[in-house]
Write a structure and sequence with these properties.
By secondary structure, the protein is α+β, with helices and mostly antiparallel strands. 29% of the residues lie in helices and 30% in strands. The strands form five sheets. Strands 3, 7, 8, 9, 10, 11, 12, 13 and 14 form a nine-stranded mixed β-sheet that branches. The model has no long low-confidence stretch (mean pLDDT 96). The structure holds adenosine-5'-triphosphate (ATP) and magnesium ion.
């Protein structure tokens, strides 16, 4: 992609009306645009990051044997009345009326998926059923101020599984937990599995995937020596205490961001929705847009973003510093074409602007590798990692080898 053709450019200054670091960095670097509080456009750069995150999730979730589909976002009131959540989830759900009929905008899909499964009247052999989609969720969040960490409209991967026994449900539940650990690791996120209450979803314990981060809205308590971790809303102890599980470690209190949550829902949904046999349901969510915001919160420095290469919008940021004869930019054009032919994802800053501006923008955008072609680099190309200061002069073949 030529930067001159990219829709959505870097801004000269940080936006004044944002308090969260992720929104400041992502807005300034041209990854997102704000429509109103809690509502953002993913510009082409941001959308590429989101797609990389989706691809990783899709790959891992498919490998648990789940089927991808797509469910509607506008739901009739009647379906929500079956479980009583039209009333109990009123605070969070956008509810509207049109032509004397009431609708809810999807904030989750348990009712819709249970209805779908029941309608298809599966034979016992078809269980467990595992279906998921990536789609928008609408939630009436009060005063959202955390950028894309908390949208009133955001993306979610939600997976649902239906089982003929509780044992089978928990077997798959822990398989998905393992797959979540892999997903987050591939994106450069170190997560803790934290016990939490189920809110408007279930009375059972659920498990949250939390990333330690000072800017996070959650507070968790975890043991410094075993895997014990609970959300503040359910933990009854204090920091500094002995761990209630291993009796050896010490409890630490920390701020964190919830990037995923899995829910062993049990039989309630199918039962309330009229299924005659017992059916155990579980649901599993990850918010790709919140994940993107979390990565932005963690991977940055005072110059801008520093994307892990697994989720970076492009692998290479190519910069040309032209000479008077314009031979350098012609040379850089060729290098760009050759990299593209090698199927390397390149953002090519082909503008006629100053080297200082180009370097500053490259640091803001945070693509993992920066390549510079200038009069000084001769027949070599300057290589620099966004995360390091060191530069090296390499030839084209060596660069392709490293990138592959
Ligand atoms: P929170 O407690 O932060 O409000 P939640 O527990 O209500 O979130 P879940 O219903 O568990 O959220 O949703 C599953 C996942 O969807 C979350 O783990 C998170 O990644 C994402 N998510 C939830 N709410 C939002 C939001 N408002 N904006 C962006 N992502 C969200
Ligand atoms: Mg949650």
């Amino acid at each position: 992609m030529r930067y001159s053709k990219l829709f959505g450019k870097t801004l000269r200054e940080f936006p004044k009306d944002e308090v969260s670091l992720n929104a400041k960095l992502l807005l300034r670097a041209g990854f997102i645009d704000k429509l109103m509080a809690g509502s953002y456009t993913l510009l082409p750069l941001g959308f590429r990051v989101e797609q990389k995150i989706e691809d990783i999730i899709r790959e891992e979730i498919n490998s648990t044997g789940a089927n991808e589909l797509l469910m509607p976002l506008l739901h009739p009131k009647e379906i929500w009345n079956k479980t009583g959540r039209w009333e109990s989830a009123k605070e969070i759900m956008y509810q509207l009326e049109k032509d004397e009929k009431e609708f809810g905008l999807s904030f989750t899909h348990e009712e819709i998926v249970t209805d779908l499964i029941i309608k298809h009247n599966p034979s016992p052999k078809e269980f467990p059923i595992k279906v998921y989609h990536f789609s928008t969720k609408f939630r009436h969040e009060a005063r959202p101020k955390s950028g894309i960490l908390r949208g009133r409209e955001f993306l979610m991967k939600d997976l649902y599984s239906a089982h003929l026994s509780e044992e089978d449900m928990y077997k798959y539940y822990w398989e998905v937990a393992d797959s979540y650990i892999k997903i987050f690791k591939r994106m450069g996120l170190d997560v803790k599995i934290v016990e939490a209450s189920g809110g408007v979803f279930t009375k059972n314990y659920t498990h949250e995937f939390q990333v330690l981060c000072e800017q996070g809205e959650d507070t968790i308590f975890y043991c410094d020596s075993c895997d014990f971790a609970q959300n503040k809303e359910i933990f009854s102890g204090k920091s500094g205490e002995e761990c209630p599980k291993c009796k050896k470690g010490k409890i630490i209190e920390a701020k964190s961001i919830e990037v995923g949550n899995i829910f062993p829902l049990g039989t309630m949904y199918a039962q309330k929705m009229g299924y005659k046999e017992k059916l155990w349901l579980a649901s599993y969510g990850i918010g790709p847009t919140r994940v993107m915001g979390t990565i932005a919160e963690i991977y940055n420095d005072d110059k801008g973003l520093i994307w892990p290469s697994s989720v970076a919008p492009y692998q290479v940021h190519l910069i040309s510093i032209d000479n008077e004869e314009k031979t350098i930019s012609r040379e850089a054009d060729k290098i760009y074409e050759r990299l593209v032919a090698e199927r390397i994802e390149v953002l090519y800053d082909d503008r006629d602007s100053s080297p200082g501006e180009k370097f500053k923008d490259a640091d803001l955008i945070g693509i993992p590798v920066r390549l510079v072609v200038s009069a000084k680099t001769g027949n070599k190309i300057e290589w620099k990692l966004r995360s390091k200061d060191k530069t090296e002069l390499l030839d084209f073949e060596e660069i392709v080898k490293r990138l592959k």
